[in-house]
């Protein structure tokens, strides 16, 4: 319950919805009670009039009596209709205030969680899988909404109806009240247990369903591999196993759900029987009228749903509390990547790594060991090395996606931790190793870093990334959609869109993390030459496996197992006859053979 306290700020925000909602519930309940009282009057009028009617047996006056009784009943019927109508109007207002409030809070909460997600560091995303992140923002928020909406609404309804009806019933006859309400607590407790079983089974079904959809999604994403390895039959068999589990769980749920209504009906029936039985005895004792029995039956029916709802509300609140606890867990996770001094300035791009050590927090792998190098503004540096030697880690450090263990990383003599993070990142153009493009147009993908880019700027970026000719070949040019419902680019084309996106924002530091691995050496050289213009006046970090990319850089750093083993110009390193020369000769020989 404590966890749900987090939502109080939202309830406060929408307090007027809540207050008016409660008011409308009270008014609607008032109009629900009125017909019961009218029915009692009608019954009593009928009973008394029957005596008068019989005494006029054989007289003309008997006809008139029928007329008088008939018109009184019609008036009462019109009053009942009017009450029902007014009740309906106020029930409409009740939902329009409280359910609307719950939908607004749901919207606010989703936005709050999403915005919070965006502030969290990469390590958070490595610890938690996407499914978990999605579940909290969709399923958990929906469960919480059930508390803010239906649970609160039916809770207030139950409370006001009890306060209004039960004292009134007791004032008429306490004994009859006791017997007619006797089955209701049993109803409430049974509903609580039944709805708990329903919830448990629904959750199981949800899990099966998400397992099933993850399986289908992966099967279709990897359809090429499945077909190439002729695994269709096995995949279909696995799908069937998952489906069978889903079907069986659904059937188990259907069984419990089928119990729900009969249980309610049986207990209501019991209440009615008790009311009629105990009521009749009291009519004979002269303690109540027959009208009172009719009135009590209506009250019992009126109280049944709220009492049923009590069990249901309790289980909704429990589930909402569990969901809110999970949401709070994420909301309480704060990013540890915060700026120390919030320095916001235009950088020139003087980058210094000084004895930097870094260990990935989740894997415990020390990816950088005592790494030192310097790049002057406008210079280019190539970082080469074997797989897993720590090249991409250097890019992560410059963008401050992680904080280093010790040592110093400075840009323009200011430690990276002191920069305002958004300001720093917005001046860096990063082409990651695993290209990620959005399912959007090519134009929007290129202008992603700065939506206010002009058409000319976007075209220029595409030209510099050697992409313009490809785009011109597409029927819709820059408006061509990529991804699921669009076209599929080749690996090299994707890399070039990613490069265009990075250079379009005119960054001060440009990082190409193995950005040309999917293009041939000829295209690689063409792109790098075209990029000379862009790289001018910018600090460029070119991370590569290939010596052909590295040799264009002003300086080369050779990494091995997280350590700098050599650094200098291409010629220096060739003269050194060390690891770089060895890599160079190997790749040259490879190219000649090819
Ligand atoms: N996010 C991460 N969490 C934990 N460990 C990581 C993470 N990223 C990389 N590592 C580990 O850190 C080491 C350096 O990885 P890095 O990606 O920097 O290598 P790389 O030189 O770029 O390799 P490649 O050329 O294959 O891309 C590797 O041993 C890798 O397993």
- Which compounds are bound in this model? adenosine-5'-triphosphate
Broad CATH class of the largest domain: Mainly Alpha
Radius of gyration: 37 Å
Give me the CATH architecture of the largest domain, please.
Up-down Bundle
- Residue windows where pLDDT falls under 50 for at least 5 positions: none
Tally the helices: what do you get? 20
Helices and strands: which structural class? alpha/beta
CATH topology of the largest domain: ABC transporter transmembrane region fold
Q: What report would you give on this structure?
A:
- The chain has three domains: 2-332, ABC transporter transmembrane region fold, CATH 1.20.1560; 340-427 and 508-594, P-loop containing nucleotide triphosphate hydrolases (Rossmann fold); 435-506, P-loop containing nucleotide triphosphate hydrolases (Rossmann fold, 3-Layer(aba) Sandwich).
- The protein is built from 20 helices and ten strands.
- The protein has helices at 8-13, 15-55, 61-119, 122-127, 130-172, 174-181, 183-221, 223-228, 232-284, 290-332, 391-398, 421-426, 442-446, 455-464, 468-473, 491-504, 521-535, 547-550, 570-576, 579-593; strands at 351-359, 366-375, 380-385, 406-411, 414-415, 428-431, 509-513, 539-544, 555-560, 563-568.
- A hairpin with a 6-residue loop joins strand 1 and strand 2 (366-375).
- Helix 2 packs antiparallel against helix 3, helix 5 runs antiparallel to helix 6 and helix 9 packs antiparallel against helix 10 (290-332).
- It is elongated, with a radius of gyration of 37 Å.
- The mean pLDDT is 87.
- It binds adenosine-5'-triphosphate.
């Amino acid at each position: 319950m404590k966890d749900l306290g987090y939502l109080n700020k939202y309830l406060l925000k929408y307090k007027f919805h809540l207050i008016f909602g409660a008011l409308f519930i009270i008014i609607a309940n008032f109009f629900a009670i009125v017909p019961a009282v009218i029915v009692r009057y009608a019954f009593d009028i009928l009973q008394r009039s029957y005596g008068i009617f019989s005494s006029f047996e054989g007289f003309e006056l008997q006809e008139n009596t029928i007329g008088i009784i008939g018109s009184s009943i019609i008036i009462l019927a019109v009053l009942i209709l009017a009450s029902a109508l007014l009740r309906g109007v106020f029930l409409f207002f009740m939902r329009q205030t409280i359910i609307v409030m719950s939908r607004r809070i749901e919207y606010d909460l989703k936005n709050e969680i999403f915005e919070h997600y965006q502030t969290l560091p990469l390590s958070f995303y490595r610890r938690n899988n996407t499914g978990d992140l999605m579940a909290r923002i969709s399923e958990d928020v929906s469960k919480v909404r059930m508390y803010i909406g239906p649970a609160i609404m039916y809770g207030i309804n139950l409370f006001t109806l009890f306060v209004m009806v039960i004292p009134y019933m007791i004032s008429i006859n306490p004994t009859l009240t006791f017997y007619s309400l006797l089955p209701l607590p049993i109803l409430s407790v049974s509903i609580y247990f039944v709805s708990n079983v329903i919830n448990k089974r629904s959750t199981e079904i949800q899990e099966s369903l998400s397992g099933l959809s993850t399986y289908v999604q992966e099967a279709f994403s990897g359809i090429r591999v499945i077909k190439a390895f002729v695994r269709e039959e096995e995949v279909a068999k696995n799908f069937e196993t998952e489906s069978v589990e889903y079907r069986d769980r659904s059937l188990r749920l259907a069984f419990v759900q089928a119990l729900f209504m009969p249980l309610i009906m049986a207990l209501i029936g019991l209440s009615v029987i008790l009311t009629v039985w105990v009521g009749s005895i009291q009519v004979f004792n002269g303690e109540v009228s027959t009208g009172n029995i009719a009135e009590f039956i209506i009250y019992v029916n009126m109280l049944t749903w709220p009492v049923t709802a009590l069990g249901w509300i309790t289980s909704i609140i429990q589930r909402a509390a569990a969901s809110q606890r999970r949401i709070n867990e994420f909301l309480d996770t704060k990013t540890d990547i915060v700026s120390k001094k919030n320095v916001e300035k235009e950088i020139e791009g003087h980058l210094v790594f000084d004895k930097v050590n870094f260990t990935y927090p989740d894997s415990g792998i020390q990816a950088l060991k005592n790494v030192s190098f310097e790049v002057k503004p406008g210079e280019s540096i190539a970082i080469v090395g074997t797989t897993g030697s720590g090249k991409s880690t250097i890019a992560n450090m410059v963008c401050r996606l992680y904080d280093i263990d010790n040592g110093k990383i400075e840009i323009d003599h200011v430690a990276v931790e002191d920069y305002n993070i958004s300001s720093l990142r917005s001046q860096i153009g990063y082409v990651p190793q695993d290209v990620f493009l959005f399912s959007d147009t090519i134009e929007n993908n290129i202008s992603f870093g700065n939506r206010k880019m002009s058409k000319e700027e976007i075209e220029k970026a595409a030209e510099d990334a050697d992409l313009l000719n490809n785009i011109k070949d597409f029927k819709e040019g820059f408006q061509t959609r990529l991804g699921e419902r669009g076209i599929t680019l080749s690996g090299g084309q994707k890399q070039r869109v990613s490069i265009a996106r990075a250079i379009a924002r005119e960054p001060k530091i440009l990082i190409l993390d193995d950005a040309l691995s999917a293009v041939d050496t000829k295209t690689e050289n063409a792109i790098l030459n075209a990029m000379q213009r862009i790289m001018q006046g910018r600090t460029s970090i070119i991370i590569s496996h290939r010596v052909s990319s590295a040799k264009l850089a002003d300086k080369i750093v050779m990494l091995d197992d997280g350590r700098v083993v050599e650094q200098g110009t291409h010629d220096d390193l060739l003269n050194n006859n060390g690891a770089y020369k060895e890599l160079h000769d190997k790749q040259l020989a490879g190219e000649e053979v090819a």
